[in-house]
Amino acid sequence: MAEAAAMEPARDGSSVPVVCAVLVALVVFSAIRSPVPGVNEPHFLAKARHLVDPDWCPHDFFLESSNPHLAFYVLVGPLTRLFPLAVAAWIGRVLALLLLATGWVALTRRLIPGTWSAWPAICVFLLASAIGHISGEWVVGGVEAKVFAYGLLLWSAAAAIDTRGRRAAVFTGLAISMHPIVGGWGLACGLFASGTRRLFRPIDRATGPHHPFFEWFIRGALLTAAALPGLLPAIGLLGRG
Predict the structure, then answer these.
(1) Dihedrals phi, psi of 15, to nearest 5 degrees
(2) pLDDT value of residue 238
(3) CB under 8 A, 24+ apart: contacts of 117-126
(4) What is the pLDDT of residues 64-104, one digit of tens each?
(5) How many CB atoms lie within 10 A of CB 182?
(6) I need a labelling partner for 215 at 20 to 30 A (CA). Which of 21, 58, 132, 177 fits?
(7) Are 44 and 144 in contact (CB under 8 A)?
(8) If DSSP states are collapsed to H, E and C, what string results for the chain?
């Protein structure tokens, strides 16, 4: 019982200082490793600005090309119109990293005992990111669509651990909408984890399977509805030569 209580995620305001500490670590790492403008930030922010203000840099070939990350452009576009791009980049970074920080705290509290377990965990993660990331891929850097997608996937994983499948489906769908590739791989990992869990977990024959077909249908519908706003523009690119 004591172990179960230790693993139970906190439901009160004790999460706030932990989230703040994790957010500070993420922002400092972002500033040191990727000064503004970071990798891809000029592309993402310029596309976002042009989407909300077509008179900005009109007739530019790149800016008037397709919008594969439409959800990101719609979300961040107003910032680029209200502030200089460098300021918008930092506001966008803080917002994206705040989502990442809250998702990180929510997930780690369900996996590791202790109120402050998220703090040493994020320090280890950032150290590994600094010395061991592959092919230039990163989670914490400049603001772009995939940072929001990673934060949403962390929330999805936390919801799945709480057996809140519908909420997990919505978060995964939003991650796909924000960044189809990152969200799609997150969905694949989630389905693999769910399938493996069901494979090795005995089914209570008195109640039958834990997730009837209708429940999976609802989750699929919620995931699809959340994913479509960003997924449809990306699918539209597949038919173009």
Answers:
(1) -70, -25
(2) 65
(3) 118/18, 118/22, 119/18, 119/21, 119/22, 119/25, 122/22, 122/25, 122/26, 123/25, 126/25, 126/26, 126/29
(4) 988 889 999 999 999 999 999 999 999 999 999 999 999 99
(5) 21
(6) 177
(7) yes
(8) CHHHHHHCCCCCCCHHHHHHHHHHHHHHHHHHHCCCCCCCHHHHHHHHHHHHCCCCCCCCCCCCCCCCCHHHHHHHHHHHHHCCHHHHHHHHHHHHHHHHHHHHHHHHHHHCCCCCCHHHHHHHHHHHHHHHCCCCCCCCCCCCHHHHHHHHHHHHHHHHHCCCHHHHHHHHHHHHHHCHHHHHHHHHHHHHHHHHHHHHCCCCCCCCCCCCHHHHHHHHHHHHHHHHHHHHHHHHCCCCC
Q: In one letter, which amino acid is 181?
A: I
Quote the CA–CA distance of 150 and 175 in Å, as a whole number: 7
The span from the CA of 214 to the CA of 23, in Å, is 39
Orientation angle between helical segments 118-132 and 15-33, nearest 10 degrees:
10
* Token pair recorded at residue 163: 């057996």
Q: What is the largest CA-CA distance in the chain?
A: 66
Q: What is the pLDDT of residues 67-76, one digit of tens each?
A: 889 999 999 9
**CA-to-CA dists, residue 112 to 3, 101, 107, angstroms:** 11, 16, 9
Q: How many Å apart are CA 214 and CA 195, to the nearest integer?
A: 17
Single-letter code of the amino acid located at 176: I
